Every structure is written in structure tokens, then in C-alpha cells.
């Protein structure tokens, strides 16, 4: 039997979901919690195989409850079951340690299947949630060349844009001429340009000056 703890502050939701899960031969709802604090307490007391966790609850929300559970019992497997699919809920929940993320619009049998899959070590995410995660990952993976510049390199690029020579830059920044040349070389490499002129043009095009 897969031992399940269900945390949700809506009694009718708990009754409905628990009744369906109780009809499954391999699932046993061993405890129910009406808020995050109770969920943490009952989890540490019963050590269920799976925790169904609502996000928005009184006293303590599901994200904080998930954090506290994972800090006290890192082997916990938590399935978020919520109505929210916005970024400010999804990412904090997953970062807190939730294994799977389901929506309350899911059918009862889909929740049961998610419990079984999570119990077997899989991570189940609603298609809408998966789409948001992939979109965020794609955005994070796109790094503009100038974002690789160090603060010193950005400073030197600005001085280059002002038309200063390497010697003038060295004098202004109180660093060796050789050091300036190394920085300039790094700047050209990171911006993927051939010379100082192209670097300055890049800086203006990307509003760095």
C-alpha cells in the first residue's frame, strides 16, 4: 500500500479526493491536514510515502510546509496539488523540494496515477507547468556576449567608447599598460568582434554607453 497524507484547507476537497483514493487497492490515505503546520507535524509523525500538498493554506502555506518537511526529512516525496500555475507559485514550490506538480483541474485517476509514479521515483508535471519551466530555461540559457564582461572590462569598454587609447586608460585607472591590453583582448574575445572599433559599435548598439 502507498501511504498518503493529504494537506488541503478545503474540507470538501479533502473528503472528495480521499474518498476516491480510498477506493484504490494500492493507496491508503493515512492522515489529513487542514493547514501547513499540521501537515509538517503529521508528516514527521507518520512518515507517509507520499504527501499531497495544497499551496494556499492558512497558518502556513504549502511552500513553507514543503521547505520545513524537506529540511527535517529529505526523503519525503511531495506532490503539489493546486489551482495555481503562475511562476511565483510553481518555481518556489519545486525549489522547496516538491517532486511533482499537479493541478486541481486534473481528474481523480490522474492524481492517483501521479501518486503511483512519484512513489516509483518519477517526477510528474502538468503539461502547462512543464511548458513554463522549459520557457524559463530557454530564456536563462540565452546569454548576451556583453553579460560575460567583468566590471573592470565594462569600465574599460566605456573608456574605449570615449576614444581613449590604451595608455590613457591605463593612466586613468592607475593600472599597467600590459593589464589594459589583456583586458581589451578579453573584451574583443567575449564580444566576438575583431577590433576596438567593432567593440565600440557593439557597445552603442546594445546601449552600454
Automatic annotation (TrEMBL):
Its main location: cytoplasm. The modification 4-aspartylphosphate is found at residue 54. Residues 142-207 form the HTH luxR-type domain. One of its GO terms (molecular function) is DNA binding. It is found in: Cytoplasm. Keywords: DNA-binding, Phosphoprotein, Transcription, Transcription regulation. Residues 3-119 form the Response regulatory domain. GO terms for cellular component: cytoplasm. Signal peptide: none annotated. Pfam families: GerE (PF00196), Response_reg (PF00072). GO terms for biological process: phosphorelay signal transduction system; regulation of DNA-templated transcription. This is Response regulator. It comes from Salinibacillus xinjiangensis.
Amino acid at each position: 500500500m502507498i501511504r498518503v497524507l493529504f494537506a488541503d484547507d478545503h474540507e470538501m476537497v479533502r473528503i472528495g479526493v480521499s474518498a476516491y483514493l480510498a477506493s484504490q487497492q494500492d493507496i491508503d490515505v493515512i492522515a489529513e491536514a487542514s493547514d501547513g503546520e499540521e501537515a509538517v507535524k503529521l508528516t514527521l509523525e507518520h512518515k507517509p510515502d507520499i504527501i499531497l500538498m495544497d499551496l494556499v493554506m492558512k497558518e502556513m502555506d504549502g511552500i513553507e510546509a514543503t521547505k520545513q518537511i524537506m529540511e527535517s526529512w529529505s526523503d519525503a516525496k511531495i506532490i503539489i496539488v493546486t489551482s495555481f500555475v503562475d511562476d511565483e507559485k510553481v518555481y518556489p514550490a519545486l525549489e522547496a523540494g516538491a517532486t511533482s506538480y499537479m493541478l486541481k483541474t486534473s481528474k481523480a485517476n490522474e492524481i492517483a496515477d501521479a501518486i503511483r509514479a512519484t512513489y516509483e521515483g518519477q517526477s510528474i508535471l502538468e503539461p502547462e507547468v512543464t511548458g513554463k519551466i522549459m520557457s524559463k530555461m530557454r530564456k536563462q540559457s540565452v546569454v548576451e556576449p556583453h553579460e560575460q564582461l567583468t566590471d573592470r572590462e565594462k569600465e574599460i569598454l566605456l573608456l574605449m567608447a570615449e576614444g581613449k587609447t590604451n595608455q590613457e586608460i591605463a593612466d586613468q585607472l592607475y593600472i599597467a599598460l600590459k593589464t589594459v591590453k589583456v583586458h581589451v583582448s578579453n573584451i574583443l574575445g567575449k564580444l566576438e568582434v575583431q577590433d576596438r572599433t567593432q567593440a565600440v559599435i557593439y557597445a552603442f548598439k546594445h546601449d552600454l554607453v
